[in-house]
Amino acid sequence: MIRDITLGQYYPGDSPIHRLDPRIKIIATVLYIVELFIVNSFIGFGICAGVLFVTVAISKVPISYIMRGLKPILLILLFTFFLNIFMVDGRVLWKIGFLKVTDNGLYTAVFMSIRLLLLIIGSSLLTLATTPISLTDGIERLLTPLQKIGVPTHEIAMMMSIALRFIPTLLEETDKIMKAQQARGADFESGNIFKRAKSLIPILVPLFVSAFRIAQDLAMAMEARCYRGGKGRTRLHEMKFKAKDIWALIALNAFLVFIILERIYMTKVGG
User: Fold this and answer.
1) Where are its TM segments located (predicted)?
2) Which tens digit of pLDDT belongs to each residue from 18-37?
3) Among 2, 6, 221, 258, which has the highest number of CB atoms less than 10 A from its own CB?
4) Which domain holds residue 64?
5) Ramachandran assignment for 97, one of left (phi > 0), alpha (psi -120 to 50 degrees), beta (any other)
6) Can you say whether residue 90 is alpha, beta or left, with left for phi > 0 and alpha for psi between -120 and 50 degrees?
7) Structural domain contains residue 137
8) Residue among 100, 76, 104, 101 at smallest CA distance from 90
9) Does residue 199 sit within a domain?
């Protein structure tokens, strides 16, 4: 289960998506999330899903690899589904005891689950198709205007990049600790969900120790290389918008306008 988490991992490739300017990919991800919250119909979700899977195909990241990353958040998806299906009022379709399934609850449960699923896949594609260094540079360049009001943009971008970069490392450490404790007789599989959660507590202490050790090693490595923050920092490859980036930006804005028009149309039809 731990190894199935793909958040923060980079999938090497040379596709058109990989070669896009990281700023465009960050903007695209933000706009896609906004569009998912603008959509108010299953038709709109179908359009967003179609665009997303075309993008995944162009990126050449195996769809099986992306879907594997959904396994760890399956519990969140199921919790969201059942929370909506039982908590939203409407015409009762099925009832047992104090639990009841309504038509509005079923609609909302499916609607929210699809939104969450598309949001996770779209967000994970950003890190899968962008190296941590490029992601850091892209975030920093996008936040550059905030430097005029004293915001430490480089430090913020660096912290975000390090956090994403070390998610796979910490997951690997967690996997090693769990295997070591299982070899000593620990049981993480049997029992109900509360017992399983309680059995994971002994993992937290060695995991925190390992995380602090990794952080110390990283700090020492940065000091040894005379890292002094973003002031006066140069780059081997300066980011410049190319023709493909301009066309991608135009396509992003066109799709945003299309989604807004689709919502307006569906609202009028529904009204």
Assistant:
1) 26-53, 73-94, 106-129, 246-266
2) 999 999 999 999 999 999 99
3) 6
4) 2-130+241-270
5) left
6) left
7) no
8) 104
9) no
